[in-house]
Write a structure and sequence with these properties.
Helix content: 40-55%
Radius of gyration: 23 Å
CATH class of the largest domain: Alpha Beta
Largest sheet: 7 strands, antiparallel
Oligomer: single chain
Structural class: alpha+beta
Strand content: 15-25%
Strand order of the largest sheet: 3-4-5-9-6-7-8
Order of helices and strands: HHHEEEHHEEHHHEEEEHEHEHEH
Number of domains: 3
CATH superfamily of the largest domain: Histidine kinase-like ATPase, C-terminal domain
Shape: globular
CATH architecture of the largest domain: 2-Layer Sandwich
């Protein structure tokens, strides 16, 4: 490949990678990145529009660009008529991604079948709709059902006071309302395989991003049933195995390591000060060998909270390796104080 062609391919690749974040100023950003004129970038943009890789909107001065969907569709299924996720995968989803790299197809196979099966087995839905969109850079899919709602289902099954508590439990992993038939691993691992993973249900919005490596709970408008959205770059090197390996500790190759975002245990301006808050954070984590408590976003914790986690729980469960990361100076002081009392 000549140097000119290689540079041209690099420019096009950069445009594809940056256009979602810079749909209004992609020409300026690209020109600065490669040290070329905007006119030169505009020639690449015009060529990509002609090739139907991009779509342009607006006049010349206010023109915006976006990735053109190579494939976009939606389909609604009757969830009460013996629906099976493997059949939907084989007939509709698999063929739509057959030209993607093998590691991406494996991620989609795992993620879609897990999320679609959750609707079939737990949502008590009448219908489920799949929205699919693929561009040259990304593939995304949304599964929408009209059932009871995933967070409400977990809240009712576990006797939780708040649907937001269900999100904290999901973030830990190994959560299922049907242990005889499910391991409770599907949502946890799926959320970590995709670049972006969101669940909206009953006004509670859960989101996980690979770039931020964090979970968030947000308040949103009321929505009947559940909406699950997954998106991944078509060229990522991530694999199903690499994600499973991140949460395997020891020689038994089981799902025995988890990262718990401590921030999810607090709501609004609440401070983590009480033993009851600590007990909510600690629920079910004795099922793991290694537990990493991520204090990112938590400015301070109370003495009782720290004592319950790092002395009381640690004494009762010596088989659990309890680690604290991303601690502020105040949090670390409380953690160290509690551990010193063991």
């Amino acid at each position: 490949m000549s140097k000119v062609r290689a540079r041209g391919e690099a420019i096009r690749r950069f445009i594809f990678e940056q256009i979602e974040a810079h749909h209004e100023d992609i020409a300026a950003v690209t020109a600065e990145q490669f040290g070329i004129s905007r006119q030169a970038v505009n020639k690449h943009l015009q060529r990509l529009v002609e090739e139907k890789a991009l779509v342009a909107r607006g006049n010349t001065r206010n023109r915006r660009y976006a990735l053109r969907p190579l494939d976009i569709w939606h389909k609604t299924y009757d969830a009460s008529a013996g629906l099976a996720e493997d059949v939907v995968w084989r007939q509709d989803i698999g063929p739509a991604i057959e030209h993607l790299p093998e590691n991406i197809r494996e991620i989609w196979h795992y993620g879609f079948t897990e999320m679609f099966n959750n609707v079939i087995d737990h949502a008590q839905a009448n219908t489920v709709t799949v929205h699919f969109k693929k561009t040259v850079m990304t593939t995304e899919l949304m599964i929408i059902d009209d059932g009871v709602g995933i967070f409400r289902k977990i809240q009712q099954a576990m006797g939780l006071l708040d649907e937001r508590h269900a999100v904290l439990e999901l973030a830990k992993g190994k959560l299922t309302t049907d242990p005889a038939n499910h391991t409770g691993e599907g949502i946890f691992f799926t959320s970590r395989m995709f670049d972006a993973f969101d669940i909206l249900s009953s006004g509670v919005y859960f989101t996980h991003s690979v770039e931020e490596e964090e979970d968030w709970i947000l308040e949103a408008g009321q929505a009947q049933g559940s909406q699950v959205w997954m998106k991944i770059n078509n060229h990522t090197a991530r694999t199903v195995k690499s994600i499973f390996d991140q949460f395997t500790a020891g020689d038994d190759f089981g799902f025995n390591k988890t990262v718990v975002p401590v921030r999810l245990a607090q709501y609004g301006d609440d401070k983590l000060v009480s033993r009851s808050q600590a007990k909510r954070l600690l629920a079910r984590i004795d099922r793991f060998k290694v537990v990493i408590l991520d204090f990112d976003g938590v400015e301070t914790i109370g003495q009782a909270f720290a004592d319950e986690v790092f002395r009381v729980f640690a004494n009762k469960h010596p088989h659990v390796e309890l680690h604290a990361i991303k601690q502020s100076a105040e949090v670390k002081q409380m953690v160290d104080r509690a551990r010193a009392a063991i």
